[in-house]
Structures are given as structure tokens and as C-alpha cells.
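Whiteboard transcription, Tuesday session. T.W. wrote the C-alpha cells on the left side:
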């Protein structure tokens, strides 16, 4: 058998050269560029059942059923014995986001949460680890004696989806499980609004502690909203948390309406920018919006067609780079919008996780800015304290492309990176 590849007969070993360091899988907060995510660790389980199965366990068809752990475990074990489970997916909106970030950046990230102390082959925790990028540092997950969360999707022959939610011990993350040095040296801290509903659980204190650490160290805080029903339930709490601790909010158009009462994404974004510095809104077939602030003296006019909607000429300055409002002498609101990539896929295989993919692209651009500033602090890219490396328009383009990749696959997480991003004339300006 011919061995593949070409081989050199002569080899040269420079004995005087310093030996290369072995790669580190654990994040070094003093040297690495990374983002930190805090999540309720949950595994998505997909199974096919009949209506009799639902009736047997008293599960409301077509509903999201929150059940106690023992009952959920009986359901899961029966599904295993019936061979009804078709897939296990690592879930969680922040788990998805940091995984996608590491795939896009080909670099490290950190996930904070809980993990079963005793993991058996084929268990939900085992599947979570198997479906998470090796570049996501999981060494700081807090061990619990119980199980991670499980979201069981039961599909009946008529195609109806019924959900069984078992929180397990996913809310048992304590403040002691938040490594301060990791948070304070991160490019960004990203979390979701979901833990806000875990009233009386330790994860509330863990979330507050991480927010305080990030705010004190001036690490940008990014919050993803959950579902429309969650936002409606926790609207005042989300608004308060965002106003006090968060710089960037990410959501879809339904969550934006639930948060602001505005059905138009532009008007919703205008309201949200009174609380935070940037907002990302994915709007399905209408594309996505990225809105924020830049300084009046630093605004850059677009060469793209000018758009008008509920706000006239809203994308005029979308070639500007994002800034925190507090860093602007004269803050100017900037709005950017992009239609779905290639008009959207001909066939959508999965919508779950598209927003997480878009957010991962934004985080990648922010981390790239942080990394470049560390390497080239005197670069013209950093004459002002910009929040991201690229303009609003360019980030929109990147986020849109990542969302498309999620929509055309069955899983909610990227399995590989994307082709090189398309450059444009406006990017060349910032490279000068």
C-alpha cells in the first residue's frame, strides 16, 4: 500500500532553537483572547412517540411541559428502552453561542455552568460533551451530583411537537463557581435572560456576581433574551438588569416587541438603545438589524442604497464603527439592516439556533478588536475606544452569513467554520 503524501529523506533538527510550547486547552486569562459564557447546561433529546405515550404520562400535547425530575427520568428511560430516541443535541442558547464562537474564531472560549460529577457512556451529559467544540474550555464547570437539564422533544405521527422540560440541577451553579480572573480578563461576558426566572436558585447569585465582576472590570456584557413568553413574564426584571449591567442585547423581533411594545424592529431598537449601547435583532424573513452608537465626529456614511422605514434614511451611517455611548462626546444612534443571505435558503432545515449563530459572529468581531488592540495598540484602528473591529454594516453581513449556515442544517450548532468573509470598500478605509 502506498503511504499518502510526500516524504523528505533528509531531516533537519535545529537543536539550538527554543522548543515550541505544547498547546494549552485551558484558557490562560493573562495571554489568551476569549469570551466567557454563563449558561443553564441542558441537553436536547428528540424522540418519536404516539399519542398513547403522551396520555400514559399525562403530558399535554403540543405544549411545553415542565415536569419533576423523577417523572422526566422515567420518561427518558422508557424512551431508551423503546429505542425511540433519534438524536441528542447539546443545547442552551449560551452553550450554542460560545461553541459557535470557538468554531468561527478557531480559538478558545469558556463556559460556566454545571456538569454531572458522574458521567456514564450515553448519558445526556456525555452527549453534551461530545457535541461541544474542543476549543470551549469546560474545565470550570461546577460539578453536581445530579443531572444536567434535559429538554425532551416528543414528535407524534401527525408531526406535532410536545416538549418535556426537566431542569435537573442546571440551576445549582453558585457564585463560588465563577472564577473572577477569567471574567475580568475576557473580551466579553455573554449570558441569557433564562436564569432570571430561576427564583430562589443559586444561579441567580452566580449571575449577579459575574455581572458585577464584568462591570467593575469594564468587560462588555452581552445578554440574549429567551422566548417571547419569557420576556413577557420577566419584562421589568430584564429591563432593570439591562439598564444596570448590560451593554449589548440580542433577540428576535417577537422578543423585541414583548420587551418594548413596538412591533417594528427599528422602533423597538430605538427604545432599547435608551437602556443599552447596542442591540442585535434577528427578524426571520426580514433579515437582521444591528443598531448602536458612534460619535458624531466619527460617523461614516454608507455607499449602500439608503433605506427608509419607520425611521427615515436609517442606515445612512452604517459604515461607522460601534462605540459605547459613554465614550462618545456626541452620541449618534446608528441603524443597519441586511436582507437574508442569498434571499434565504430554499429549504429551511432548522430555525433553532440561528440567532445564537448571529450573536456568535458579533462576539467574534468584538474579540478580534480586543485581540488586535493587544497586539497593535498604536494602530489607527484603536485611535478611539471602538467596541468592535468592523462597522455595523460589515458585522451585519457576517452575522447574516452565519445564520444562513444554521438554517440549512439540522443541528443548532456549527460543525465547521465559514469561508473567508467578503471584504468591501468600506472595510479598506478602516485598514488604512
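and on the right, the sequence the group agreed on:
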Amino acid at each position: 500500500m502506498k503511504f499518502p503524501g510526500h516524504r523528505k529523506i533528509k531531516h533537519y533538527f535545529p537543536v539550538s532553537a527554543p522548543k515550541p510550547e505544547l498547546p494549552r486547552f485551558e484558557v490562560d486569562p493573562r495571554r489568551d483572547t476569549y469570551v466567557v459564557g454563563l449558561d443553564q447546561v441542558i441537553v436536547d433529546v428528540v424522540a418519536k412517540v404516539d399519542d398513547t405515550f403522551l396520555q400514559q404520562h399525562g403530558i399535554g400535547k403540543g405544549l411545553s411541559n415542565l415536569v419533576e425530575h423523577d417523572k422526566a427520568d422515567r420518561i427518558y428511560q422508557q424512551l431508551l428502552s423503546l429505542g425511540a430516541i433519534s438524536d441528542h443535541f447539546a443545547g442552551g442558547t449560551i452553550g450554542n453561542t460560545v461553541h459557535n464562537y470557538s468554531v468561527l474564531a478557531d480559538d478558545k472560549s469558556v463556559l460556566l455552568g454545571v456538569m454531572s460529577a458522574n458521567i456514564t457512556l450515553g448519558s445526556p451529559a456525555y452527549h453534551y460533551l461530545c457535541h461541544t467544540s474542543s476549543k470551549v474550555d469546560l474545565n470550570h464547570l461546577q460539578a453536581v451530583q445530579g443531572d444536567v437539564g434535559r429538554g425532551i422533544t416528543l414528535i407524534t405521527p401527525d408531526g406535532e411537537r410536545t416538549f418535556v422540560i426537566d431542569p435537573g440541577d442546571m440551576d445549582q451553579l453558585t457564585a463560588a463557581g465563577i472564577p473572577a480572573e477569567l471574567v475580568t480578563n475576557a473580551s466579553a461576558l455573554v449570558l441569557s435572560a433564562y436564569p432570571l426566572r430561576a427564583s430562589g436558585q443559586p444561579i441567580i447569585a452566580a449571575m449577579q456576581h459575574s455581572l458585577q465582576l464584568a462591570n467593575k472590570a469594564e468587560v462588555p456584557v452581552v445578554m440574549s433574551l429567551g422566548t417571547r413568553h419569557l420576556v413577557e413574564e420577566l419584562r421589568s426584571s430584564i429591563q432593570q438588569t439591562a439598564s444596570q449591567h448590560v451593554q449589548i442585547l440580542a433577540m428576535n423581533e417577537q422578543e423585541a416587541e414583548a420587551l418594548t411594545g413596538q412591533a417594528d424592529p427599528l422602533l423597538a431598537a430605538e427604545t432599547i438603545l435608551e437602556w443599552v449601547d447596542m442591540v442585535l435583532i434577528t427578524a426571520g424573513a426580514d433579515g437582521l438589524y444591528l443598531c448602536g452608537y458612534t460619535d458624531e465626529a466619527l460617523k461614516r456614511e454608507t455607499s449602500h442604497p439608503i433605506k427608509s422605514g419607520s425611521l427615515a434614511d436609517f442606515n445612512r451611517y452604517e459604515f461607522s464603527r460601534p462605540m459605547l455611548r459613554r465614550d462618545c462626546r456626541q452620541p449618534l444612534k446608528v441603524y443597519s439592516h441586511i436582507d437574508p443571505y442569498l434571499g434565504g435558503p430554499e429549504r429551511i432545515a432548522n430555525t433553532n439556533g440561528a440567532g445564537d449563530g448571529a450573536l456568535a459572529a458579533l462576539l467574534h468581531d468584538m474579540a478580534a478588536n480586543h485581540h488586535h488592540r493587544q497586539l497593535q495598540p498604536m494602530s489607527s484602528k484603536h485611535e478611539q475606544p471602538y467596541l468592535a473591529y468592523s462597522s455595523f454594516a460589515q458585522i451585519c453581513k457576517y452575522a447574516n452569513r452565519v445564520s444562513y449556515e444554521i438554517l440549512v442544517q439540522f443541528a443548532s450548532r456549527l460543525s465547521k467554520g465559514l469561508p473567508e468573509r467578503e471584504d468591501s470598500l468600506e472595510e479598506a478605509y478602516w485598514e488604512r
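Someone added at the bottom: The first strand starts at residue 36 and ends at 38.
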